[in-house]
TrEMBL record:
Record keywords: Amino-acid biosynthesis, Asparagine biosynthesis, ATP-binding, Glutamine amidotransferase, Ligase, Nucleotide-binding
Pfam families: Asn_synthase, GATase_7
Organism (species): Mucilaginibacter pallidiroseus
Transport recorded as keyword: no
EC number(s) stated in the UniProt entry for this protein: 6.3.5.4
Residue span, Glutamine amidotransferase type-2 domain: 2-215
Reactions accelerated catalytically: L-aspartate + L-glutamine + ATP + H2O = L-asparagine + L-glutamate + AMP + diphosphate + H(+)
GO MF annotation: an example: ATP binding
Name of protein: asparagine synthase (glutamine-hydrolyzing)
Length: 595
């Protein structure tokens, strides 16, 4: 797990290219504290850079950028290939020669054997750049779930890539901000892919590869193999399959030569992973947890229940207070690669995990999206009926004080972005226009003409799963988890997003997959024999902080002097009165620091 960067250009000298890539790597040193490498291929006007967080093969043999034994290809790699041992054995059967024990070298040899077809063979979380020396072609490749970030920039003079947006600025590749990002943040709470805060810097789509040469320029193609399985209709069979495939996912994601643990929040998802890891791991499983003085948010009782079921637990629990939040808020905002309303919880838990000595952890991200754990899985039926109303009555909701009802304003637009914002949106276009001193039409154009999302018209739970996975999880949870964990030199693994596990879950008929009186009933029933009853039977909390209270007392967020314009000052006063959610105030706070 690392940070990568590179530049290809015939407009700069080799020395200049090295200096720029060195600057990119230095800006991301927190994500790769163990080693650094910068290498040039002068004939191709190419420089690759790498910052290493050592997880597999901790020796110097894992130094990157790395070439194969015959120097036919060069790679800079961020991530983990969980099935690298199986692929390595297969490649050795074909005569491939290996110099070390890393999964990085397996990628090189797999490419030399299978070409671009190898990309779909990898199971893991990864983003890498691979240069085929003979073809003089570079490939940027991103994992099927988009767990690891990869951004690129291209103009007539330069092609550049990096794991973080800040790297492009540090190297002077570009300083131009995309002026649309405040509108996206105030509506979505994040900057949706493929866009970033920088103009012409884009996120590589998940499950795809970009091929680039100086002669042909960039071209993006998908490599992901979409499985078309028959739907499983037997509930018991589905439960057995879920157990089997999640056990396999946990087993292979525990592969590590460095200390590894589990995020244990006390909820169903993290508890399942903790208990499965305890069965699979050949050492006592270590967990990391947070608890609060605010009893409404404190889950320490449930964390202890799970820890008590482990044969020999190494349980690390940390009290996190409002004073901690006030102290570290500037660092948290500084850690953000792009503005977001998420990531505070990930920053704290990653900080404590790193200080405890972990290099990698398992996280329960993905379970809610797969099994219907969010309120949106119920609310989406309201959307079906709301879409039946004449559009000319939606504007009336602007007269209402209820922020949730005001979301009906989004439905003046007939597209998928509007549907999602009805479910999860922060500010409406009318409010955004007032806050940013722009026009409602401009806000609408940015929100509803910038994205090419597939049309969703059934408004069933499968559609809700798509909204949560492809938009909320992709643009917010995964991105913020990666940024905040890597800020502390920590790798976060996500067994619920294992490719084979997801394929199996997606083969279960929705009538079984989302069946039951409780959210995620099928997942609960699949592991009822190991889960403490009090963990799964209580009301869902999620990994939540007391941020409504903490942020409401924070002198930086609530200081009116930090806000420009009447609308912004009125909004922050409503927040101080408890009339709007903290996420809206936090989005506005970040925007106001930049306008």
């Amino acid at each position: 797990m690392c940070r990568i960067a590179g530049i290809i250009s015939n407009s700069f000298s080799s020395t200049t290219l090295k200096e720029k890539v060195q600057a990119m790597c230095t800006s991301m040193c927190h994500g790769g504290p163990d080693d650094e490498g910068v290498i040039a291929h002068e004939n191709a006007n190419l420089v690759f850079g790498h910052r290493r967080l050592s997880i597999i093969d901790l020796s110097g043999a894992g130094h990157q950028p790395m070439a194969d034994v015959n120097e036919l290809a060069l790679i800079t790699f961020n991530g983990e290939i969980y099935n690298y041992r199986e692929l390595k054995a297969e490649l050795q059967g074909f005569g491939a020669v290996f110099q070390n024990q890393t999964d990085t070298e397996v990628i090189l040899q797999a490419y030399l054997k299978w070409g671009i077809d190898c990309f779909s063979k990898f199971r893991g979380i990864f983003a890498f750049a691979l240069f085929d020396i003979k073809k003089s072609t570079t490939y940027l490749v991103r994992d099927a779930n988009g767990v690891k970030p990869l951004y690129y920039y291209h103009n007539d003079e330069v092609f550049a890539f990096a794991s973080e947006i800040k790297a492009f600025i540090r190297a002077g590749v570009t300083h131009q901000h995309d002026e649309r990002w405040p509108i996206w943040l105030l509506a979505f709470g994040n900057i949706p892919e493929p866009y970033t805060t920088l103009k012409n810097v884009f996120s590589l789509p998940k499950g795809s590869y970009l091929s680039y040469s100086l002669e042909k320029g960039p071209s993006i193609n998908s490599y992901e193999n979409v499985a078309h399985n028959h739907l499983l209709v037997d509930e018991r069979e589905a439960q057995e399959g879920i157990c089997h495939h999640l056990n396999n996912a946990v087993k292979r994601q525990l592969i590590s030569d460095a200390p590894i643990g589990v995020f244990l929040s006390g909820g169903t998802d993290s508890s399942i992973l903790t208990l499965l890891a305890a069965k699979q791991h050949n050492k006592p499983v270590k967990t990391i947890s947070l608890f609060f003085n605010e009893k409404e948010y404190d889950e320490s009782r449930y964390q202890t229940l799970v820890a008590g079921k482990l044969p020999k637990d190494d349980f690390h629990s940390h009290l996190t207070t409002s004073q901690d939040f006030d102290t570290h808020l500037p660092q948290i905002i500084g850690a953000m690669d792009m503005p977001t309303t998420d990531g505070i919880n990930s920053w704290f838990i990653s900080k404590y995990a790193s200080e405890t000595g972990f290099k990698a952890v398992l996280s329960g991200i993905g379970a809610d999206e797969l099994f219907g754990g969010y309120p949106s899985f119920e609310r989406i039926s309201y959307l079906r009926y709301a879409r039946m109303f004449p559009k000319n009555i939606y504007w009336l909701t602007n007269l209402l004080q209820n922020n949730k009802l005001k979301r009906l304003l989004y439905l003046q637009q007939s597209n998928t972005a509007a549907d999602y914002l009805f479910l999860r949106g922060l500010f409406t276009p009318v409010d955004i226009a007032k806050l940013l001193n722009t026009t409602e039409q401009q806000a609408n154009d940015v929100l509803f003409k910038s994205f090419d999302f597939p049309i969703k018209k059934d408004y069933n739970k499968l559609d809700a799963a798509w909204f949560e996975k492809e938009l909320y999880m992709q643009n917010q949870l995964l991105r913020d988890t990666d940024v905040m964990s890597m800020r502390h030199g920590l790798e976060v693994r996500v067994p619920f997003l294992d490719e084979d596990f997801q394929t199996y879950v997606n083969s279960i008929t929705p009538a079984v997959r989302f069946k039951g009186p409780r959210p995620k009933q099928l997942l609960i029933d699949s592991f009822r024999d190991i889960l403490p009853n009090d963990v799964w039977s209580r009301k869902k909390m999620g990994f939540s902080f007391p941020l409504q209270e903490w942020m409401g007392k924070n002198q930086q967020v609530t200081n009116e002097e930090h806000y420009k314009g009447t609308a912004a000052k009125q909004a922050i006063n409503k927040f101080k009165q408890g009339k709007i959610h903290w996420s809206r105030a936090f989005a506005l706070y970040q925007v106001q620091k930049h306008v």
